[in-house]
Each structure stands twice: as C-alpha cells, then as structure tokens.
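Worked example 2:
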Amino acid sequence: MASRIPAEERLTNLVVALMATEIGLTKQQILDNVSGYRQRADAGTRSDALEKMFERDKDELRTLGVPIETIGDAADPNDLREARYRIPQAEYDLPSDIDFSAAELAVLRLAGSVWSAESASGDAQSGVRKIRALGIDGDEPIIGFAPRITARDAAFAPLQDAIERCRVVTFDYLKPGEDAPRRRRIRPLALVDYEARWHVYGVDVDAEEDRTFLLSRIVGAVKVSATTFDPALRERAGERALSGLERVAAANSALLEVTPGTEAALRLGRRASSAPQGIHVPFVDLHIFADELASYGPEVRVVEPAALRDAVIDRLRAVVEVHTDQEAS
C-alpha cells in the first residue's frame, strides 16, 4: 500500500494538513494521520526513516516557497522536541488589494491544473500556489503536486483543439448503469475542472440543449468533424459550465460522519457544512463521490442518501474481494 502513494501526493496532503490547522501539528500527528506517511507506518517503515522523510519533504516545500512555520514550546521557544508545524495563512495569501474576477479565477484554476512541475519555473510554481490560497479548496490540485488532476484523458487534447477551431465533435459516452455507450454529437464550448475531474461543456447538436460530459466516461476516440459553429457560443461558456455544476452540487447533499483529525476530515471539511449528526457535503455525481469516499476507508461513514451509502459499500466490498483473491492465489 505504501508504494501506491506517490511522493507528490504525499506533499499535497502535507500542505493541506498544515494549512488546515491554526495551532499546528506535531511531527507525530503528521506521521500518524497524513496520507503518504500513515501508509508507510502501517507497512512497518521505521519511525526514524519516516522522520527523515518528513524533514526532506519540509525542506522541499520551503524551497518551493511554501512558508512552513515551526512553533516551539511556549515556555522555551528553543525547545523543539514537541514542535508544531503549520502554514500561516497570512504569509501564504496574496496581498488583500489583489482581486480577480470569477472568469480570471477560472482561467488561473485551469492553467494551474494543466501545467506540470517540469513546465513551470520555481517562481511560477510559488505564484500559483499563492493564487490557490485565494479561496480555492485546499484539496484541489496545487501546481507541481497534482496527482489527481492531469490532462492525461485521451479526450482532452482533441476536445481542446475542437474548441479552439469551433468544430463539432462526436464521441461514445458510457454512463454508469448502461450496458453500452451512446454516440454523442456536440458543439464543445469549454473544458472545466470540477471536483478534481475534467468535464467538457457544450451544446448537444441533436437535442439542441446544453450538456456537460465527464471526460473519463468518453469511450474510444473523439472525432473532430469539419462542421463549424459560431465562436460567439464560447463566450462565458466556462462560467456557465461551472455555474451549472455548482447548481447540481447544491441540489445534492450527503450526510457523513467523519473521524476528526483524518485526511477525510481535512479534505471533506473544506467543502462541508456542519450538521447535528456530522457534516453535509454537496456533490455532483454519486458514482464519482462514492469513489472518493471509499478511498478514505473507515474514516467516513455515509448516513444518507442510501444510494450513496450502498455505492460506497459496493466499492469497499470489491476491494476486499480483490485482496482476498490475491491472498488465496
């Protein structure tokens, strides 16, 4: 399990954890709770090796411009045996007199998700991390540390090309629960990143209605036709797409019980509202959200809706069956 947590994802989780605390986290709390360290500890990695890993990670983040603060004992600030670590928001945020419109933030979000660590300088990486601190949720990708968001979907490049050239596209789309994909023909207007997934927004040519499609559900190749459409359709398309997704999320809410101090609490808490029994978290797609919740294992329990709870249970049972089969063989 330890080998399945890439270093860049571990660094992302560390940044999220240190930004989520005002009083700071001790080294032991980090090693026990932050994904990437926790799995290695569970796998039997020695504590001194984990501590060295944390020190290397801390130094690397500071080199990249992330201001990690070390807080010593209140009575003796030089006593760092029980030091706590945090990322102070005041030092991480952009100056208060810098403001961006919703459209500009959408562009910055897209750019920060597409760029890779290799394609941006250290200064650029530091700058975009500060942009992320304007209010974009901490569990969204941070440039240079984007294990969940990439442009690796095969559909991404041809769709982007079709949008730029105003060309109609066709593709096969497989929705959960359907036995076979359906052919779709759309005027693609925008590619948007929402809830750590790429979506294409456009006009369904056959229905003449706006539609949003998840790239990961596109089956086979995207075919770009010679048929063009009016470039004016693309105006503010990204904003319309995100507004539509946000409306869907607002109409769907899950009641969850989450173990405090865990990765799930850090990630889900940033987009949740409190409830008497736990937290309410809005979501767009039940199947995608079930995938995320299942990845947290025992850190999350779905109270409602029942369909989401059943979907998470199905995924956890599938994991158990896979591991049972591997042990039997």
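Residues 174 and 217 are 6 Å apart (CA to CA). Residues 114-151 have pLDDT under 50 and may be disordered.
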